Amino acid sequence: MGVDVVTFGCRLNAFESEVIRREAEQAGLSDTIVINSCAVTNEAVAQARQSIRKLKRERPEARIVVTGCAAQTQSQVFADMAEVDRVVGNDEKMRGDAWRATRAAFAAPFGVDASEKVAVADIMAVTEMAPHLLDGYARGLPRVFVQVQNGCDHRCTFCIIPYGRGNSRSVPMGAVVDQVRALVERGHAEIVLTGVDLTSYGADLPGAPKLGQLTRQILRHVPELKRLRISSIDSIEADRDLLDVIADDARLMPHLHLSLQSGDDMILKRMKRRHSRQDAIDFCAQVRRLRPDIALGADIIAGFPTETEEMFARSLDLVDECDLTFLHVFPYSPRPGTPAARMPQVAGGAIRERAKRLRAAGEAALTRRLTAEIGATREVLIESDRQGRTEHFLPVAIDGDVPGTVRRLAVMSHDGARLAGVRVNAD
Question: Using only C-alpha atoms, what is the Rg of the chain?
Fold first, then answer.
């Protein structure tokens, strides 16, 4: 058997898992399972540990390697697991020499030496980011990810990710354009730009280009690209070029996911966020003026330390005030080593109850948007023979079609989760 990669967490991890698979296979590893972990919540770490135990029971002869953010921040926790053969750091996982060293360690006569079990270096010492052009990326999926940035220079009080990813660093614009062009030539219809702190793109590059300039360059130099999508952004860092592209180029999909986290100004200050409640509301209104049909999503944390019911209510109200369509709710969990973990904590029951109310608000918001789509004509990217996505990332039920194609559909109904429609023949 070859190399299987089990991915937890973000879209960036999904991209990096493809690099891991390629590099590990080229290094000659076989019968190996790689866990690409996430550290954003305690639950994510627990899920990785549970998966490791389960996979070892199912495949006792396979070697298990753990990498990703949780492996970077809690390397010894995973190294102490009897099921784990090696722990590889978050920077090392992207490099072929780390996987060749892993193969050599596995081939040693007496197995992996205890001193070699952990291969995790100081992530804060990493200052550059090499582009990774994937020849067979995502096994022909219609939508693929391109990593343009990694790391984060900000220190939100709840977040452990900078210690798993390091400081912000960017892929040069030319390399990004080359990768997008190559992926389009291989038939991928939609490209998603991804990173840890995407709107900080370019600050470390000559001339300090911004995300908007990168987006313009991609659309200008790859005219055959059908659909370009941007993953999660920090609205306070959105630059003028990015706003202009949102307004002017239909190939940039009318869908943004925002890192809002809270709707209360005091909680935002205690999180060390750089925007206010009004900043969030104003940004959403601004992009709606530029692109009236845009769909907006957001990350919101329920039960951040010191959050009162009144503070939470302002987060709940933000769903309507920003007219959000998609909500990604995070019940707060303290991450060891972060300032928020030392603040007065909200009771677990209250956190769960608030998260439930936020999710309900998110479900209601999605239902309203699905209802509003009835009667519209949308360009739908076929993801599988059962589902596609509109330009606004709304799911559409499909009854057999060719993945990777874009179909024009007239929206007729929805079932509360997905749209349904009939195909409109092009003139």
Answer: 22
Query: For 82, left (φ over 0), alpha (ψ -120 to 50), or beta?
Result: alpha
pLDDT for residue 83? 92
Helix (H), strand (E) counts: the chain: 13, 18
Residue 91 confidence (pLDDT)? 86
Given pLDDT bands bounded at 50, 70 and 90, which one contains residue 302? Answer: very high
| Burial (CB count within 10 angstroms: exposed 0-12, middle 13-18, buried 19+), residue 416 | exposed
Torsion of CA 174, 180, 186, 191, to 10 degrees: 170
pTM for the whole structure:
0.87
What does DSSP assign to residue 200?
A: G
Using a 10 angstrom Cβ sphere, with 0-12 exposed, 13-18 middle and 19 or more buried, the burial of residue 80 is exposed
d(CA 64, CA 82): 10
Q: Check if the beta carbon of residue 367 is closer than 8 Å to that of residue 268.
A: no
Residue 9 pLDDT exceeds 90: no
pLDDT, the chain, mean: 91
State yes or no: pLDDT of 403 exceeds 60. Answer: yes
Closest of 237, 269, 258 to residue 156, by C-alpha: 269
| Strands annotated E in 122-252 | 143-147, 149-150, 169-170, 190-194, 227-230
Q: Which of 53, 45, 52 has its CA nearest to residue 69?
A: 45
Q: What is the pLDDT of residues 209-248, one digit of tens each?
A: 999 999 999 999 999 999 999 988 999 999 999 999 999 9
Distances (CA, A) of 295 to 57, 96, 129, 392, 425: 43, 40, 31, 6, 26
- Tell me the C-alpha distance between 267 and 261, whole Å: 9
The pLDDT confidence band at residue 108, using thresholds 50, 70 and 90, is confident
145, amino acid identity: F
